[in-house]
Description:
single chain, 159 residues, mainly beta, Cathepsin D, subunit A, domain 1, six-stranded mixed beta barrel, three-stranded antiparallel sheet, disordered N terminus
Amino acid sequence: MLSSYSFASSDTPGKVIAGWVEKISIKNQSYALKAKLDSGAKTSSVHAENIELFKRDGQRWVRFQLLLEGAEGAEGEIETLTLEKSRVRRVKIKEHDGDHDSRPVVELDICFDGRPYAVEFTLTDRSAFIYPVLLGRRFLAGVAVVDPEVTFLTQAQCR
Length: 159
């Protein structure tokens, strides 16, 4: 069934072959985020700063900031994007030391390989990691096959 993957592109449905690191963008933003594609992680996560939980009309919401890197031709420029999203749920993430971290989950509209997706992300401090975004199995299933030998096979912006 390899042929169904070989011909997938931004214009056709099906799984795309992606590298182990790709660039994504937040919908309607020209700035990009580098994302590690990790089939070992169940949930996707994004580096967020100044995470504030609050209530709006009795519902749970989250205010947070994303740091976005300049798009093509503007590398090195950083823009801070402040977002407010309803909290989808909370998850407990097992840390390497055995402890658990409780994180809020929000849905973000992203572009991956030129196509829009609504993806659930945990919000966390990923400053100790090389890549600000981790795309896990929940996102990758049905979307991409990861080639661990290459990087940056897809386009970050939606068409």
